[in-house]
Amino acid sequence: MELNESMVGDALTRLKRAHGQLAGVITMIEAGEDCAKVLTQLAAVSKALDRAGFKIVATGLRQCQDADRRGDEPPMSVAELEKLFLALA
């Protein structure tokens, strides 16, 4: 399955936000910030990454459904999509 920005724009936005959050976490650690604050921000980064991944899997599912409706060969099988989804869990 090929991805482009128009298909996964929301996921890309989430990844860019997570990138910034991760840079902030690194800065916090380097500055000796409080452990609880660092872990709170790290949890936010983790959640943003998870949500981006799920968004990409959902995009793949829609592509496969659209291809099936048109009578075309889907870009991925249900088993492949399931494997990707479970890799995020």
Automatic annotation (TrEMBL):
Which UniProt keywords are present, listed alphabetically? Answer: Copper
| Presence of keyword Heme | no
Q: Is the keyword Acyltransferase in the record? A: no
CDD domains for this protein? CsoR-like_DUF156
Q: Which superkingdom does the taxonomy of this entry point to?
A: Bacteria
Q: What family does the database annotate?
A: Belongs to the CsoR family.
Protein name as it appears in the record: Metal-sensitive transcriptional regulator
Q: Which organism is it from?
A: Nonomuraea composti
